[in-house]
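ok here's the first one, seq then struct tokens
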Amino acid sequence: MRRSRGGHRGPPATSDAPPAGLHSAAAVAERQAPVCCLKHLRPLRVPRSSRGSCPPGVWWRRTGAGQADERPSRRVWTLEASPPWQPRPAVRLRARRRRAPTFGVVRCRPAAPDGVPPTPLSAPRLGAAEGRCLNPGRFRSPRPAVFLPASPNERQRAVIDAFRHAWTGYRKFAWGHDELKPVSRSFSEWFGLGLTLIDALDTMWILGLKKEFEEARKWVSKKLRFQKDVDVNLFESTIRILGGLLSAYHLSGDDLFLRKAEDFGNRLLPAFQTPSRIPYSDVNIGTGAAHPPRWTSDSTVAEVTSIQLEFRELSRLTGSKKFQEAAEEVTRRVHSLSGKKDGLVPMFINTHSGLFTHMGVFTLGARADSYYEYLLKQWIQGGKKETQLLEDYLEAVEGIKRHLLRRSEPRKLTFVGELAHGRFSAKMDHLVCFLPGTLALGAHHGLPADHMELARALMDTCYQMNRQMETGLSPEIVHFNLYPQSDRKDVQVKPADRHNLLRPETVESLFYLHRLTGERKYQDWGWEILQSFNKYTRVPSGGYSSISNVQDPLNPQPRDKMESFFLGETLKYLYLLFSDDPALLSLDAYVFNTEAHPLPIWAPPRVG
């Protein structure tokens, strides 16, 4: 939605002797060991004492000009994840006298009989949030990092190029600040916490951008401090900062991010200290003072019900129940409230009374959208054991079908409108385009098959919201034509709604639909959208800008703002969309928060 541990230290290998015991019976036996994992984020330097103790399944190999073999080389060694006869090693780490940065996961292959190549290893699925290295040996890391493929295809390389261009602008003109203003080559602040940098951490890891990730990590380590007198929005800071730190921890295995996440989570907790236990929208992370927004005493339903994935995961990792208890108390209270309509909820809730306000208005757009998303995703995160969440989600889907679904004219596009005091409006926010992906995800996890049918129909509509615009980019809000005798197009746009904020919802759902159906058309649609971003929003000096008019390709009117979610969500989902590997952040192992930060699905309890 909307929204490292170092390697081994010591001098490099300089001996002319081969590694001890390389051809010994014990070494050969060790190579028959199972797959292991190894994570390094700092330069790997092989100490003299460990040259003869390569982990099982790893081969020493001489590098440089000349034939590669298992003979020694002066000063330079290569630690490989495949034997010399493997034509394309999956991952390679080098140990040199000078610094040789490494990144990601070394996955060691067991030896195979002479002349028989080993079976390729797919990306491991760290199900249940507790992946383990099998036979890690002396290189064991307390928490293995997640292996990600190192050879992107052509479309993925285009996404990497887009990310690097955006990151170049941020690094030049907004480093350490919240958001880039690419046209004026400056920055803007919201919380003063490096929002774009933190939101993009896991994207850099997934895209394999090791240099950029290491530089960002250094900033987090040395510059990110939460002891400051600043108000933050509970929802936005949870999904972007807390979610970003937790995801970076899970992918990299670096405790730095978990420590920062726990510190930040503690500073958000005062927001829950209200008479109703419904949290305030804003909290000062330096003083602990919490308050509602200046214009109302209410919080939005989406804000208070879309922080649970992150707080629950923080409790699981730290062993402190207070985060999960605070967030789940909100879920319980909202579940028991009156004022719903067949599972649909109003947009506002009062922090003092704990009751819904502005009754009778129902939407899946702003202020309510991610409530429905998090019902399903909490159920998935918890191992599908919390039936109350599932029941609320299924009831809401039926309410959507009954009250909010219509078909436009003349093309019969299925869309989700709004209901205000019994009166239907054919208005649909681009935010609602999260729904096809959510419905498809539920169907994948065993929910009714007609959810997938509805997901496909809504996905077609969201694509048309982009395609029917002259720039190929969706406006923020559209209205659908309901009158068959009219000569109007299906999709209508008011002048005030023609802007595009680089939002991710369409490409998010395209990712889910392609991942779960395998249909290439969803990749092609995403490719069209990426090309439109490059044509109409790319700023030559670095970065991408939101635009004011998606209907004017000659002058789309840059708004001089690159939201953090463009790097944290939009480009990440595009990269994943263009992958054909279902094991890359498997939907059976991870659930994405509403800011596209992957968090692990919890393990079912072990029996026996």
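and now the second one, same deal
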Amino acid sequence: MPGAPRKAKGGAKGRWSGDPALQAPVPVPSAWRLVTGRGDGIALQAELAEEQARRREARRGAGGADGGAEAVDTVRAGTVVKARGAQFELSRAAWSLVPVVSFGLATPVPFLRRACALGERRGTGAFAGYLMTTLLSWFTIALAPEESDALAMGSLLLFVSTVVGSVHTFLTFRETWEAPAPARVRGGAAVPGTAAGSRPVSVEDRNREAVAEARARLRRRRRARRLALRRPALARELRIGRGSPAYDDGGLVDVNHADADMLVRRAELTAAEAAAVVAARERLGGRFSSVAELAVYAELSEGRLAEVADRLLCVGG
């Protein structure tokens, strides 16, 4: 088609002809593979979609037709990354069914687990409320005469508490899933996931705690990334990706605002790589459209981008 950009031979890292701004390698499939299998891949997926739309508009403005669709032809339709892992969904479904399969007898159990995870009054309050409701309904059913109003009221109370408890568990399960382990104290120093006065912590315990803390950081990064994608104005207010002491983003770095020192400290880039990112950002007028652009404008290799992609995001404005 005349005027449409053409992709030269050479695989995923070929060069585009037609638009001078796209003469550099365009590793869209490579960047896509970086996030395949990652729990937070939906963020980069959205960023890549934004980049695709931006380039299509740029080509149309330059006189191109629909050739921009070729940029995504190399991405298979079946590689859509889900926002939440299957493990989370299965766990949430299983815990939500506990009140139902136990006929209301175990309705307080998910909230006992939630109270232990949160360690807050709201967690213990929900557990105490469901426990009293369950005991009251079962005692009423057990002691009420047959075909009496008390028996009907006890049965209705049990049914309502079972349904409400199941729905409540489903809606609040993320709080339990993402809650960090409570801190314990060992030798006067706080140790994540332990309790004061507990037994000495073994190497295996410390390893498990380190893994749990690393997973908690990953969850915080996913949560902060979703917030930045859905509500960028709020993300800017919270200073997500800029090392804000008020909001724990799990160590995310906003490549549109972070200086070279922060890129080195938080994203673990080398000094040369951080300088290249800052220089590329200045050439682009102070804003990247997606993390994938780092491979084009800052010349980060595919392997290097794979190592740091989960720590980076682009917050507009």
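notes on #2: Residues 1-40, 62-84, 181-199 have pLDDT under 50 and may be disordered. The longest strand covers residues 183-186.
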